[in-house]
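Quick log. Single chain, no ligands specified.
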Amino acid sequence: MIPKEIVKEALASGFDEALVTRSNHTVCYLKIANSKVDSVVETSGQSGMMFLSSKKRVFFTNLDRFDSAYIRNKIENSKRLIAMQAEKKDYNGLAEGPFKYGARQKYSRRIENYTIDEIADMANSAINSALAEGAQSVAGTLTIGYSKDELATSKSIEAESRSSRLSMSLRAMTKNVALQQEEVSRDMDIDMAKLGKMVASTAAGVKKTGKISDGTYDIIYMPAAGGSLLSNINAMACAGSIETGSFLSGKIGNFVANRGITIYDDGLSGNLVSSSPFDAEGYPSQKTVLVKGGVLKTYLHNYSTAIKYKTKSTGNAGLVEPSPNTLVFEHRNRVSDLDKLISEVKRGILVSSTWYTRFSNYLTGDFSTVPRDMSLYIEDGEPKFAIRQTGISAMVGIRINDNIIRMAKNTLLAANDAIQTTSWDSGAYYVMPSILVKGVRVTTAMV
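-> predicted structure:
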C-alpha cells in the first residue's frame, strides 16, 4: 500500500488524523582498519512510520512492511494502544495542506549508480594520501546511500523527495596523537586525497607531548568540535525545549552570542545532507535566522506549537514537538585559515574532537566536555606540544567547563575553513568553521 491509501484506511477506522511515510533506501558501509579496506556491507529496504491522532491523543508506530494485511493489523493494534494514552492538551493537529514546495535539494545520480570498486578506490585514495603524509595507521568509515521518501497526510498533503549522501570519517594515527575528521555531502564531491593529507599531515606535525595545569585558556575548536557544542543552540531553540527549560528561554531580543555571529537553522539548502523540501508533517522546510548580530530572533516551531504561540511554523516538525535541522554558523570576524587563528592565541588549546558533553544545567547552559584525540597546547601563537592522552579511547587528560551562551558571546574569531560535517559524539549536522573562544575554564586529570 502507498502512504495515501494507508491514510485513507486509518481514517476509515475512526482516527481523526493520520500521517504516513515510506522510504525506499540503499546504504553501503565501508570500514577502514589497519590502513586497509576491511569490509563492505550493503543493505536495501523499505521502512516508514504511521502517526495517528484521536481526541487529542497521539500515537506513533514504525512500519516494516506495506502489504495490506500487515497495515490493517497495525491500524487495529494502534486503536487499542492509543486509547491508553493520555490526552496531549496542547496538541493542535497536523499542518493543513496542500503546499507548494521550493527548490529541490541536490540529488546525485552518481551516488545512485555507485559501484563497490568506485567507493573502495575513494577510500584507498584517502588512505594512501594519509600514509604518504606520515600517518602510521589509518582507520575510518565511508558511508554512501540514497533514498526515495514519500509522505501523505489526512490534511491534503502528498509529498515526495529523493536524497543522497556521502560521508567520510577518517582517523590518522601517529606515534604521539590521532586526528579524526568527517566530511559529508549529497554528492560524490569530497576530495578524499585532500582529506587524508590534511588529517595526517596535521597529526604527523606533532613531535612531542606534555601536560598543562588547571586554569583559564583560550580554546580553538576545529569544526567538528565547535559544531558539536554550538549545535545545542538550534536544538534548545525548539519550542518543546523552551517549555521544559532551555538556556534560551525568555531570551528573544537579547544578546546570546558575539555581535559578529549569525546562526541559521537550515532545512532547505540544496547541498545539506539533512535538508528536505518538507518537514516531518509535510510543511515546507525553510532557512530560519535564529541569531543575527548576536541577538536571538526566534524559536523553532512545528504547526501545532506555532498555533499555540500565535505564530507561523518554521518547518521544524517533529510531529509532537519541533526538532532542529542543520546549524549554519557564520562570523563577521574571520581570518584566512587555521594557522592564522592559532597565531592569535597567547595561551590556549586547540581541540579537534570532543566526547561526553554533558549539561549540568540546561536552563543556564552550563556544560562540560572531554577532548579526544589531538589537542595542542599553544603559547605565543605557536603549538608547543600535544596534551598527553590518557590511553583510554584516546581521551585527553583535561576537561573543559563552560557555558553555551558565554561560549557564543566569547567566540571572537573564525577561520575561513567552514565545512559541512558532524561529530560521532553528537549526531547533529552543521556547517561550521574553526573558531576561537576566549577565557575557558579547564581542569586536568593525572595522566
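The CA atoms of residues 79 and 242 lie 32 Å apart.
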